[in-house]
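The instructor's notes for this session suggest beginning with a concrete chain rather than abstract definitions. Hand out the sequence below and ask the class to guess, before any prediction is shown, which regions might be ordered.
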Amino acid sequence: MNLLAIQEALRDANLDGWLFYDHHRRDPIAYRVLGIDPVICSRRWYYLIPQQGEPAKLVHRIEAHNLDGLPGKTNLYSSWREQQEGLTGLLEGQKRVAMQYSALNNIPYVGLVDAGTIELVRSCGLEVVSSADLVQQFEACWSAEQLQSHLAAGTVVHDAVRTAFASIRTAVTQSNKISEYDVQQTMLRVFEANGVITDEAPCVAVNAHSGDPHYSPLAENSAEVHAGDFVLLDVWGKQKQRGAVYFDITWTGFVGESVPEPYAKVFAAVREARDAAIALVQEAFATGRELRGFQVDDAARAVIDRHGFGAQFVHRTGHSIGQDVHGNGANMDNFETHDDRRILPNTCFSIEPGIYRNDFGVRSEVNVFAGTDGARVTGEIQSAVVPILAGY
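After discussion, reveal the predicted structure:
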């Protein structure tokens, strides 16, 4: 934990403090920001970092050591009455504190503190504000080592995509059966051989399945892949090491020597939307202009709308990427939520517009790293639907 940096950020935000709270490990953000990992967390704990001065702890006597290693005085409680009295004392002199809370739950990745605890803190006479911007600063900004882990994972993820398309090509040309699930497992073997892990298996979606943004094949419901099929691959992974961050892409292909016009037309609209969003981010970071997540979504969505596919673009343009594939920085979103968080330097996010029809869906996903010296796409950029039988 970087106490001095947190206190400086609190002063910049005109906040009296940042109140961390957890019960049964419901708030992973708290553990990552504070840098602690208690063995047992079956009782409530609180940790207040004030704008200036020494932090303070409130922990249950049974789990008195849960915040060991953090600076500050330790206050103990046993009963619920003693807990509330202790919390009142902990917050004495505070007026505005940040917590992992989001008004109307607009940013659900940050809205982790339960409503009752928010009510309890407010009953002490405090104003509770969202820690979303603080979380982004201390949770979503990457180190140089994390960027390198992202790039290394990206090499493996792209290799998994190439291997997937090659496995389809080999099976079809040799008249062997291959299913979505088979292709998925092929990519997981590439991951395992190269030290990459994932929280969920890759998505392999054929034809109408690709029109479902969150389809994922199982052994028992997997469709076979044949010549003339449209294929979407959504693949994400990270290195198997502490602090590693994800790489997350989506590519599409057609099982043939050339790509029919309906697929190429929809992909062209998605590509244009993707590139408009990328260009907006790059221009803003090249000129030092402030940019917020919802503005990137607006740029991509305007292109999809202009092509007449607006009703078929049914999700946000992109999400923050971090140690979780859906990270805690700004999302590129003015659809599912209005994300007005500023895109900070040294953060990474996906740009992945999509068009979803009943018979097929197209999404093109890249990762953008917004650095202190500009913004860039960190992997390969798909320019056209891959004609799988012609090779890739």
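Then share the key points. Residues 76 and 82 are 9 Å apart (CA to CA). The chain has two domains: 3-139, 141-390.
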